[in-house]
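Suppose a colleague, Dr. K., hands you the sequence of a protein chain of 302 amino acids and asks what its three-dimensional shape might be. Before reaching for any lab equipment, you can write down a predicted structure in token form. Begin with the sequence itself:
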Amino acid sequence: MGAEAVRAAWQLASRQQGVIRRDQAREAGLTERQVEYRVSRGYWPTVCPGVYRVEGAPQSWKQRLKAAALWARSGFAISHESAAALLGFPRYKPGPVEISLTRNARPPPGVTVHRVDALPPKDLTFIDGICCTNATRTLIDLALKGSEQDVRASVDHALSRKLTSLDRLEAVLARTGQRPGVPFLRQLLHQYQGGDGPCESELESRVYELFEAAGLPRPERQRVVHVGGRLRRIDFRLPGTPVVIEADGYAHHASPLSFEKDRERLNGLIARGFRVLHWTWAAIHGDPEGLVHQLLQTLLRT
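The predicted structure, expressed as tokens, is then:
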């Protein structure tokens, strides 16, 4: 019976990122004495109060998130920067452990708890068995304390990958109230609804931020033009000028077919009288001043 209980507990933990709560171990068939033996001897290290990593399970960031979720039990969701990293927002990396709770609770060491009034099911999703706020709710939470640049890049990422939509964002904002960051999100929605599309990659977000840092006029984004009898979308265009900036990442040219299509598109733009500048990731990070100087020189010659 003991071996079967240990096996059942280990199998459950394997479905939970390698962690198990004390009462779950008891339900699997282990006695209180058997659980305490494993904890006291260090076979089951404590990750959160009452939550343990079973022997042989490697440590990971998702394991810490799952441990926080097991500790919370109910009325919770992994949220804020932790949810952003789970959802794959480029500006947020695994590291922090943040959780929203609908009740007051003393946070475990290494866990940040956000007290919230409610966590409606429509605001939640599951990633690798971990309950977290969905993209729309996460964007609202990020706006509370994140920089405007990081929030804008995250909105762009979520929209371009269809993790949310303008309608869903607008609906959640309508019931959010006057929280910090909400006016900025409403301003972004107004820009997008007015015709500017979201940046479709982290590189495009960096291009947009370079314009802001240099004090240049806000470029039009993702506008559609007729080129060679077809509708083509351009990354950035300076209003009232023929100057176009294309954000060139390797992923967009990783095959001969995509390379050929890009050259065809470029030739069509030039034939239409556009002045096309190509800005790469390496140039954005290595020589932003040089890119701005080149842009200004191009504008002077148009």
